[in-house]
Amino acid sequence: MQVRYALLRQLTPSKNRWNLKVRLSRMWTAKNFVTCDVRSLDMLLIDEHGDQIHAVVPKEVIHQFTEQLHEGELIHVEKFNVSTNNATYHPVAEGEQKIYFSIDTVVKKLENQDVFIPMHKFSFVDFNDIPTICHKPKYLTDVIEKLNAITEIERIKKRNG
């Protein structure tokens, strides 16, 4: 039987019978900063339209998914919960939804690579806009670098070789 996959933009909290075909883009362990206790396993998932969503595996069920979840892989996910993201931070710029895995969630690695799903998605912000958004803790911002000028290549000799 052919599985019907939903797109991330179709997810709503009112329904929990979704099947997803997504790439696990990034994965990290969220910890309590004071006690260093693991709170959850967090992930960024991307679908074939390039939409991205934050997914969370609560600490009580992390052991159930550690063998099945690997960055970069295409996966089938079903039986998960969708809710509005009310967290203090959002690792995804667009969308206000969040996925929560449960003890019933099913994850399978997809061997069939019949659809292109990018490995990463970036939401670029103009460098001059960073001061206005850095005080909004809702969205995480990474600054890579600022290019100030392009000049001719210059050979510099160091003392002692």
UniProtKB/TrEMBL annotation:
Residues 5-109 form the Replication protein A 70 kDa DNA-binding subunit B/D first OB fold domain. It holds the Pfam family DUF223. SUPFAM superfamilies: Nucleic acid-binding proteins. InterPro entries: NA-bd_OB-fold (IPR012340), RFA1B/D_OB_1st (IPR003871). This is Replication protein A 70 kDa DNA-binding subunit B/D first OB fold domain-containing protein. It comes from Kingdonia uniflora. The lineage of its organism: Eukaryota, Viridiplantae, Streptophyta, Embryophyta, Tracheophyta.
